Amino acid sequence: MAEIVWTEPALSDLDASADYIALDKPAAARALVARVFDHVAQLAEHPRSGSRPRELRDSRYRQLVEPPCRIFYRVEGAQVVILHVVRSERRLRRADLRRVTR
Predict the structure, then answer these.
(1) How large is the greatest C-alpha to C-alpha distance in the chain, in angstroms?
(2) Is the pLDDT assigned to residue 9 strictly greater than 70?
(3) Which one of 25, 31, 70, 89 has the largest count of C-beta atoms within 10 Å of its C-beta?
(4) Taking each helix axis from N to C terminus, what angle separates 26-41 and 8-22, rounded to the nearest 10 degrees?
């Protein structure tokens, strides 16, 4: 079983998305956060289950999609490191992921 490690940027990304949604629909914001955490939890048992991001097909990065978010992560030994949570329509560059530290 892999350990899930959330980076500060990933938590900040999710928080910012939830805050924006909560301006009009607080219940929807709470539901989004719960869905994201539930979806990420499955990575403990299946760390390589996410797809390769279309922008980064030849990289070590993977993603889960939980509309309207894309959750970017990488597998590091027995850990799954959650790097960013971004809006689905945003393109992510490899450099955005490399800057993330725990």
Answers:
(1) 41
(2) yes
(3) 70
(4) 150
